[in-house]
């Protein structure tokens, strides 16, 4: 009934090795992940020496021994194993040719922002640590989604939903929302078409890479609604809606609204609150058409014959959401739900009146404003390499080089969180989900945690022959309220496991 | 914030003040705005990668997901 639910993000970062344009991105990604792992998970490193001959154990994700190998000796298969779980409950790993960070499970949009931003800082530290490796590779990471030459990589969102909600309802009510939400949470892109063959500016990084309405794929024929069904929870009760259509956002407000508004729409779908038909005639081409018009005048043809702009379609969802929250929660509505609604309304209102007044809030507007300033000062056309460079460099995660960071530093982009809160989230888990249990176990009993995943923590205890698996199938159990005192009271992993299995 | 100069005035009071503002004020504001834009572009100029064309050419990624 609110913006609260179990959710998180997973972001693949663009990667390049300075001065080595042909460097193998899988090697570089692996260096990034392993450098961070070996610097932050020291206790386990020593502990795992004896297991080197066991490839299965390596696969659990804690092996650091290949850190010392020459990168050229590693096969792709080896590299694919770079994979660690952090004490904040997040997962840091190599996916295809990119380093990727998945936030721990959290229950509010602001917490998604917090642990997503913590991921940027983890990546920043990781790249800096990788520079100390043999050969001193200077690896730069970009929080974006395309090279404008045909390749795209993802920034996914995950939302835990009730299994009882018919998937057809999700497809029907969520598709128009996804076609239009880019006007709020797009990250902006210089270039049109998958390989950037046309010049110009568009609202979304990702829109041109979506080709079908519904499907299982994520790398080819990308669908607006992805059907992957892997709940990492009790499948009788839950599904995990895997959303692949978003852009990677730098702006905290963009991420906050992306998650908050989507969570609200999902609640309305679960509660069967959406009575009106907002179906769009041609979702895939409408998605692109909306993205290709930063003046926001492009209209979408609705199945009922109306023609709405992307902003107007968002206003329909806002109207529903306001009624829904009033109807179901009234005066009991929580602060964050009300804040999401108020900000969503303000942003849509500004998009209607004066989009450029959002240059201090939304990624696509901030980037566009900067590009327009360059165009006007230097007389640049959209095919100028400098504008393309600005697009890339906006997402450079280094504070001294990234243009998003320079704008924040100059007081030109608003934030929701301060540095200290984000920094703590690099090591501390969220308190309301099983990520708390996972993170605290890794922090306190590192030497005896053999493996961990979303739905289990596996202990390797002295004197026990078999590994002890503690399942964490319910995302809302294992929270601080549940196990905080227990973990505080147990000095050893053995004591903890005994207490849990008693 | 630079952006505020562009926003439509909200209150009637401000509206009035804008209307009666002498021309020199407007000119000053315009100048301040230009300075503001120049300041941020100068700062960005300082950190932008130097050879845009080379940089753009070498920014090649593999697909992911």
Please explain how this structure is put together.
The complex is a heterodimer of chains A (502) and B (65). Chain A has 502 residues and is an alpha+beta fold. Chain A has a single domain (7-423), classed as Creatine Kinase, Chain A, domain 2 (2-Layer Sandwich). Helix content of chain A is 41%, strand content 16%. Chain A has 18 helices and 17 strands. In chain A, helix 8 (252-270) crosses helix 10 and helix 8 (252-270) packs across helix 11 (335-353). The radius of gyration of chain A is 23 Å and the shape is globular. Chain A starts with 6 loop residues before the first strand and ends with a helix. Chain B is mainly α and 65 residues long. Chain B has helices at residues 12-20, 23-47, 52-58. Residues 1-21 of chain B have low confidence and may be disordered. At the A-B interface, strand 2, helix 12, helix 13 and helix 14 of A face helix 2 and helix 3 of B.
Task: Tell me briefly what this model is.
The complex is a heterodimer of chains A (502) and B (65). Chain A is α+β, with helices and mostly antiparallel strands.
Count the beta strands of chain B: 0
Low-confidence stretches of chain B: 1-21
Low-confidence stretches of chain A: 45-80
Helix-strand category of chain A? alpha+beta
CATH architecture of chain A: 2-Layer Sandwich
Tell me the CATH topology of chain A. Answer: Creatine Kinase, Chain A, domain 2
Oligomer: heterodimer
**Rounded mean pLDDT score of chain A:** 91
The helix/strand order of chain B is HHH
Helix amount of chain B: 55-70%
Distance between the ends of chain A: 37 Å
Percentage beta strand of chain A: 15-25%
Taken as a percent bin, the fraction of beta residues of chain B is under 5%
Largest sheet of chain A: 6 strands, antiparallel
Q: Which CATH class of chain A?
A: Alpha Beta
Largest sheet of chain B, in brief, is: none
- Domain unit count of chain A: 1
Protein name (chain B): Prokaryotic ubiquitin-like protein Pup
Biased composition (Basic and acidic residues) (chain B): 1-13
InterPro entries (chain B): Ubiquitin-like_Pup
Cross-link (Isoglutamyl lysine isopeptide (Glu-Lys) (interchain with K-? in acceptor proteins)) (chain B): 65
């Amino acid at each position: 009934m609110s913006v609260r639910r179990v959710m998180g993000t997973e972001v693949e970062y663009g990667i390049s090795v300075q001065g080595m344009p042909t460097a193998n991105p899988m090697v570089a990604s692996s260096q990034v992940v392993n450098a961070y792992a070996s610097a932050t998970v020291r206790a386990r490193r020593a502990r795992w020496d004896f297991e080197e001959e066991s490839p299965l154990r390596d696969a659990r994700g804690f092996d650091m021994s290949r850190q010392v190998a020459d990168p050229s000796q590693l096969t792709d298969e080896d590299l694919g194993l770079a994979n660690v779980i952090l004490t904040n409950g997040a997962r840091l790993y190599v996916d295809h040719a990119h380093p990727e960070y998945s936030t721990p499970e959290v229950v509010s949009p602001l917490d998604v922002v917090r642990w997503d931003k913590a991921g940027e800082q983890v990546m920043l530290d990781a790249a800096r640590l990788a520079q100390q490796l043999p050969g001193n590779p200077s690896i730069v990471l970009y929080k974006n989604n395309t090279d404008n030459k045909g390749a795209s990589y993802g920034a996914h969102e995950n939302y835990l939903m009730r299994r009882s909600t018919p998937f057809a309802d999700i497809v029907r009510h969520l598709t128009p929302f996804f076609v239009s939400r880019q006007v709020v949470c797009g990250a902006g892109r210089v270039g049109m078409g998958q390989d950037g063959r046309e010049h110009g500016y568009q609202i979304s990084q990702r829109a041109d890479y979506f080709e079908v309405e519904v499907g299982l794929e994520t790398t080819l024929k990308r669908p607006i609604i992805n059907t992957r069904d892997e709940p990492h929870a009790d499948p009788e009760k839950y599904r995990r809606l895997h959303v692949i259509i978003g852009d990677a956002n730098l702006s905290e407000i963009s991420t906050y609204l992306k998650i908050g508004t989507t969570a609200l729409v999902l609640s309305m779908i679960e509660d069967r609150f959406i009575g009106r038909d907002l179906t769009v005639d041609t979702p895939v081409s409408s998605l692109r058409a909306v993205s290709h018009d930063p003046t926001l005048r492009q209209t979408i043809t609705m199945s009922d014959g109306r023609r709405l702009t992307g902003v107007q379609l968002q206003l329909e969802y806002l109207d529903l959401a306001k009624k829904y929250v009033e109807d179901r929660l009234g005066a009991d509505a929580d602060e964050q739900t009300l804040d999401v609604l108020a900000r969503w309304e303000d942003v849509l209102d500004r998009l209607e009146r004066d989009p450029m007044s959002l240059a201090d809030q939304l990624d696509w507007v901030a980037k566009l404003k900067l590009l327009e300033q360059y165009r006007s000062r230097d007389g640049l056309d959209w095919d100028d390499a400098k504008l393309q460079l600005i697009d890339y460099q906006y997402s450079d995660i280094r504070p001294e080089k990234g243009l998003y960071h320079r704008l924040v530093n100059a007081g030109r982009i608003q934030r929701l969180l301060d540095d200290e809160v984000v920094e703590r989230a690099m090591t501390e888990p969220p308190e309301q989900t099983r990520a708390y249990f996972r993170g605290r176990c890794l922090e306190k009993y590192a030497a005896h945690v053999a493996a961990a995943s979303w739905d289990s923590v596996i202990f390797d205890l002295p004197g026990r022959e078999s590994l002890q698996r503690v399942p964490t199938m319910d995302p809302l159990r294992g929270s601080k309220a549940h196990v905080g005192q227990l973990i505080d009271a147990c000095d050893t992993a053995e004591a903890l496991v005994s207490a849990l299995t008693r | 914030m630079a952006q505020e100069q562009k926003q439509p005035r909200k209150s009637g009071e401000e509206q009035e003040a804008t209307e009666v503002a002498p021309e020199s004020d407007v000119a000053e504001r315009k100048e301040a705005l230009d300075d503001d834009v120049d300041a941020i572009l100068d700062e960005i100029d300082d950190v932008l990668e130097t050879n845009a064309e080379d940089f753009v050419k070498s920014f090649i990624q593999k697909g992911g997901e």
